[in-house]
Amino acid sequence: MKANTTASNKNDGAKQTRRGPHTRKQILDASLHLFSRRGFARTTVRDIAREAGITDAAIFYHFQSKREVLKALVEERGFVAGLQQLERVSTDLPLQETLLWMTRGAINIMDENRDFLRLIIMEGLGGDESALEQYRRLVDLWESALTTVLKRYTEKGELQDNSPQAMARQVIYLILMAFQDTLMGRHVSPEAAPEERRQALAAFVGDAMNHFLPNPQTS
User: Fold this and answer.
1) How far are the Cα atoms of 24, 122, 173 from residue 44, in angstroms, in the given order?
2) Same domain for 36 and 116?
3) Does 15 score more than 70 pLDDT?
4) In terms of domains, do 92 and 198 share one?
5) Is the predicted pLDDT of residue 140 greater than 70, yes or no?
6) Who contacts 180 (Cβ-Cβ below 8 Å, separation ≥6)?
7) What would the mean pLDDT of 54-61 be, rounded to a whole number?
8) According to the 3-state scheme, what is the secondary structure of 4-38?
């Protein structure tokens, strides 16, 4: 009878490991910490399990693969939802004001996730297919959403008919390059406070956009 009770307790413990306190969020938190510190390719499922204090099987209960964990992290950080919302941005304000508002929003969420985005960028540059897949996914969503907004400005006559997608790419490349510069410690001190860093980025991007926006105005 005692042996049966012990076996029952072990089974209950296994269920708790998979479904109880060691939840999907804990797996994602452990993965983010390890991916950011070691890199995606150099982190194993077993490493994640140890970091989260669970078994390998518990991770596979929630995720089919390490690649799926990375995809879930992209969604959990709010990138996908934010980009999907971008398509619904109002075009009531002048084009420049809308672009500056969207730029500040993009800079804020990117800076809040600096370590994670550094991981995606660096692993992607290193040729990791999982990181490249997520980078392309995010930038493609961003370009599509921004192009949709700019097309509405074209319909209002504030933008040339053939330029929405080209302008969307220019804006995205400008923000990405400026952000990557801060990751490398250029132009903004690595010791700068987050708000100072974000303001410096927004000011630089806003000034640069004046050079290719139609009828640029001083903000």
Assistant:
1) 17, 18, 32
2) no
3) no
4) yes
5) yes
6) 121
7) 90
8) HHHHHHHHHHHHHHHHCCCCHHHHHHHHHHHHHHH
Give the residue from 73, 152, 64 showing the smallest Cα distance to 115.
73
71-82 pLDDT per residue, tens: 999 988 888 888
Q: Greater confidence, 86 or 45?
A: 45
**Final residue of a domain: which of 12, 33, 65?**
65
Residue 127's region, left for phi above 0, alpha for psi from -120 to 50, else beta, is left
pTM: 0.80
| Distance from C-alpha of 77 to C-alpha of 32, rounded to nearest angstrom | 10
Q: Are residues 9 and 55 in the same domain?
A: yes
For residues 108 and 177, state if they share a domain.
yes
The percent of the chain in helix, strand and coil, each rounded to the nearest 5, is 75, 0, 25
The number of folded domains in the chain is 2
Q: List the structure tokens of 199.
A: 């303001």
Whether pLDDT at 181 is above 80:
yes
Provide the residue range defining the domain that includes 19: 2-65
82-115 tens-digit pLDDT? 888 888 898 999 999 999 999 999 999 999 988 8
The two three-digit tokens of residue 173, written as one number: 């490349």
